[in-house]
Amino acid sequence: MDENIASKTLTEIPVRQRQTGLDRTLQILDALTEHEKPMSAYRIARAIGAPSSTIYRTVEEMLKHGLLSRSSKRDLWLGPRLMRYGLLYRIKLDFFSEARKEMEHLWQKTGETIQICGRDEGMMVVLAMIEGKGHFRVTSNVGTRVPLNWTASGKLLLGHLPEQQARELFLSYAQPSPTGRAETDPDLLSKQAKADFAAGLSIQKSDSEYSVACIAAPIRDRDNTCQATISIVLSEKQLDEKETKLTAAVRDSAAAIEASIRY
Amino acid sequence: MDENIASKTLTEIPVRQRQTGLDRTLQILDALTEHEKPMSAYRIARAIGAPSSTIYRTVEEMLKHGLLSRSSKRDLWLGPRLMRYGLLYRIKLDFFSEARKEMEHLWQKTGETIQICGRDEGMMVVLAMIEGKGHFRVTSNVGTRVPLNWTASGKLLLGHLPEQQARELFLSYAQPSPTGRAETDPDLLSKQAKADFAAGLSIQKSDSEYSVACIAAPIRDRDNTCQATISIVLSEKQLDEKETKLTAAVRDSAAAIEASIRY
DNA sequence: TATTTTCATCCATTCTAGTGGAATAGCAAA
DNA sequence: TTTGCTATTCCACTAGAATGGATGAAAATA
């Protein structure tokens, strides 16, 4: 909300770097995605601490290109062109078609909610999902982004990184979850990430939503990088009853997807 | 708009206008999406006719921001950050949650493949989809983009525009389809678009894929703009057998979605 | 009402980034 | 070998982008 109050200490040279047009463009898009609803150009400028003249210019250019759209007289929102790249990126992920099949398979077998998740910097993103057959519903959806420390998948997604690097990402992005149960300490988190990744499984209870649990397994490529995760999202109660069976199923699905991209 | 016409008369010198960074960025992304596979920086530069020095620079900056990623030593591909905006754009479309419900509903009722489609400039994009229960499979997928003249939905998506404007879009983007059965004449297409939109229904057979048919209805907002379409994709044979029943069902679903965004 | 905040546009200044072209090297065909 | 295409980097030049600040109008608030 408030802009950058902590400007510079005495010794720091005021190298107020001029930003590139692409920087400003991405800052605008990020401001809108964070805010999650339309904003005026003026408000965007304030939110990112940029000169309004620059933002008005850039916004105009972005509108011309369909990266933004006017949602009312003065409010701006993301533009339709953004879909072009995002959706294509997803369908061309090399594991994606196989992952869809396995998702379906896992869903047939368990009847629970199944998700494929990936990482975008410090956030976990739901890439694909099938909802469970029962009445149990989760709030997440395809496209939902949450901090990595909220979920089992989030931790796995950093498990292949050197611990130091994972620590830094958790340090920058970890946030308290709505339930207050998600770990936020970077040291602990990076250790957990490494351990869970090594085990090929991560289980989590009520970290992000009350009485919601999650069983996740990593999808690793030939370089052992965690490209994505596949997971079952279910009620804590269900988890207690069927844990052994479900963990095995998730592991199998992950293995099947990995096999498809490793030849 | 028309600046560079008067300047030189006799010897036409190629006035290669300097492009903005955002222009170059989008050209790079478009080159990759069109090509549908990774390309080298050099190849991208040639594909868009830009100075290679510019492209190498821009590519470097885009890599830094996660808009591109290296898929091998020299090959570049779309970056994970693109998902951030694309998926959020979709999820926040005001009709989207209702549309998902109706999609599900229609699928339960018919058992056929159901799609929600939107428009990105001159292309139709599959925004969401549920596959049919039978063995009949279509090649399209969420994120698939095809020229507007190939599909029933494509025509509906331009139906609210003044005929002249629709004509221009068809003129720029209409292409022959794989089956050769899709209309390509802008005049005919714009008339069809208008008529189908007015009728609130468009039906198509084998225009884009052999023996594949489609029944589509427009989803219009308060301004009568066609925001998207909902459609049943099925075999021609099925269409012949159950046409009346299915058209009614699609109409009902579209109406339900429209009701949800029109209060 | 008066006053503050939001919104939008304009201008002069600074300096970045797009451009053209050259240089270099690897590789494959002729 | 020569030729030609791919691939990458470097440099000088300058169009035009980002900036800071000013100016007003409109809207919100007191």
Structure description:
- The structure is a homodimer of 263-residue chains.
- The first copy, chain A, is 46% helix and 19% strand.
- In chain A, helix 2 (41-48) crosses helix 3 (52-65) and helix 7 (163-173) packs across helix 8 (186-199).
- Chain A has helices at 21-35, 41-48, 52-65, 81-91, 96-110, 152-156, 163-173, 186-199, 236-262, and strands spanning 39-40, 68-70, 75-78, 113-120, 123-130, 145-147, 202-205, 212-220, 226-235.
- The first copy, chain A, has 9 helices and 9 strands.
- In chain A, 41% of the residues are buried.
- The radius of gyration of chain A is 21 Å and the shape is globular.
- Chain A has 263 residues and is α+β, with helices and mostly antiparallel strands.
- In chain A, the strands form 2 sheets. Chain A has a 6-stranded antiparallel β-sheet. A 3-stranded antiparallel β-sheet of chain A has the order 1-3-2.
- The A-B interface holds A 20-23, 25-26, 29, 33, 36-37, 58, 61-62, 65-67, 77-92, 118-121, 125, 127, 141-145 and B 20-23, 25-26, 29, 33, 36, 58, 61-62, 65-67, 77-92, 118-121, 125, 127, 141-145.
- Chain B binds a DNA duplex (30 and 30 nucleotides) through helix 2 and helix 3.
